[in-house]
Design a protein that fits this description.
globular; single chain; 460 residues; 17 helices; two-stranded antiparallel ribbon; 79% helix; Growth Hormone, Chain: A; 1% strand
């Protein structure tokens, strides 16, 4: 799942912006379009999954089909022809991304819904979310290192056979890097396909028998009743704000490492970004059990608020730690960013299961698919707007990939300030919004007792 959400856009920065020299604003437009479609398709897939009563269940057939499709598309999308114009590259990326993220939706929405169904226990849900987050963090360094891995494969396998190529705008293209991205795309595509099919065949569904008795959900129910759920509204708003703030400047880490710290060297700069990713995700992975225990001790709400504070502090450190004089100082940022994000990723997914219990008590329906899709819609809408504006921001502040390490002082300063301040503002707003979230452990235990009385026992 982590591959499908982020790997394609990270490789896009290397292949289309840094290698083929396509305008960041043009790629930003493509990203805005496919991310908005991705956000719209999630609720639709949530409804389809909740209403599907196949002999294999509501979730598993879609998980398998989506994983196969996404794996194949990811492998193929980097075999773009050379010699296209900027507009032609725009359409190539847009069409390929639409196909990939539609396949991703078919997999991810039922997958996340299945995770919310696995346990009725308040704290056990956090443990389940912790295991899922651990898998995400294990794959995280590879995700961060996608540009470096592609550049390194290009140097190792294709440097000697690479031919000099000049694009339609008269700029030199590094064909070795492009071939490295193609090889990496095939490897990642196989990983997506294999892991998704494995999950689809091995996971079990919990509330399938209840769903058979409920009747089908409608689009009105999805867009009206869902947003009448007060706990969900606060959770969704916090989720959107956090991911918007992080995503708005996330890609700037790559560009700062390459064009500011590494003086335009793509291989070295993407290597720094890879090391940062390893540091962040290793720290986050090692502290996931601590986050799970902290949630039991402090409560889920306070753990999320603590995570927002830690991410804000990590963002503050960015301005001082991203420096050409000591590139490794960014590992200090990673040491705080990793656990801060873990607090949010682990606990918020656990809270979604509590929200679904609250919804069942009000509506009599189990709608994990719709709620998971609605949360994903919020996250992807925020990330989509943010990611596209991120590329527009590069153009606005005067970034030019053809200048290499000779970027203007204003462009570097603009990237550094944006990279630091934006996540802090988003986390502060999210903190004050989330203070109003109403479900604590005592209320969730009461919900479970009431639901079990209504059902006549715990559904196995």
């Amino acid at each position: 799942m982590n591959f499908m959400n982020n790997a394609a856009t990270r490789l896009m920065n290397l292949v289309f912006v840094a290698t083929l020299h396509v305008s960041p604003s043009l790629m930003g437009t493509a990203m805005l379009i496919f991310r908005l479609w991705d956000a719209i398709s999630d609720p639709l897939m949530g409804q389809i999954s909740d209403n599907a009563l196949t002999r294999w269940g509501r979730r598993r057939p879609f998980i398998i089909a989506g994983a196969i499709s996404a794996g194949l598309v990811f492998s193929a999308m980097w075999f773009l022809p050379l010699g296209l114009t900027e507009n032609q590259y725009f359409w190539w990326w847009l069409i390929a991304a639409l196909m990939l993220f539609t396949s991703s939706t078919v997999f991810i929405v039922p997958y996340l819904a299945l995770g919310k169904e696995m346990s009725p226990n308040y704290h056990e849900r956090t443990s389940i979310s912790a295991f899922r987050a651990a898998g995400e963090k294990i794959s995280g360094p590879i995700n961060q290192g996608m540009p470096w891995l592609a550049a390194q494969l290009g140097v190792l396998l294709f440097a000697e056979s690479a031919v000099e190529f000049v694009n339609a705008s008269g700029q030199s293209v590094d064909t070795a890097t492009l071939w490295g991205a193609r090889v990496l795309g095939i490897l990642v595509g196989i990983g997506i396909l294999a892991s998704g099919v494995f999950a689809g065949f091995t996971c079990k569904e919990r509330y399938f028998s209840i769903a058979k008795r409920e009747g089908k959900s409608t689009l009105k129910m999805m867009f009206v009743e869902t947003f009448k759920n007060r706990p969900f509204v606060f959770l969704l708003a916090t989720h959107m704000l956090f991911w918007f703030g992080i995503s708005l400047v996330d890609f700037l880490g790559f560009f700062l490492n390459v064009y500011y710290i590494a003086d335009g060297d793509r291989l070295v700069g993407s290597g720094y970004q890879f090391v940062y990713g390893i540091g962040q995700h290793v720290v986050a992975l090692s502290l996931i059990p601590v986050v799970a225990r902290l949630s039991k001790r402090l409560g889920k709400k306070k753990t999320v608020m603590l995570g927002l504070f830690v991410v804000s502090f990590a963002s503050f450190l960015k301005y001082f730690c991203y420096t050409p004089d000591a590139w490794y100082l960014q590992l200090v940022v990673a040491a705080f960013m990793g656990p801060g994000q873990s607090c949010l990723i682990v606990v918020m997914q656990s809270m979604m299961a509590d929200v679904c219990d609250y919804d069942e008590l009000k509506t009599g329906k189990r709608r994990e698919g719709i709620y998971g899709a609605a949360l994903s819609f919020g996250q992807k809408f925020g990330m989509g707007i943010a990611a596209s504006f991120n590329l527009y921001l590069l153009a606005l502040i005067g970034f030019d990939s053809t200048l290499g390490g000779n970027q203007t002082a204003d462009a570097i300063f603009g990237m550094r300030i944006s990279f630091t301040v934006t996540p802090i503002i988003a986390c502060i707003i999210a903190y004050f919004v989330f203070r109003h979230y109403p479900l604590d452990e005592e209320r969730c235990q009461d919900l479970r007792v009431e639901l079990e009385k209504r059902r006549g026992g715990v559904e196995q």
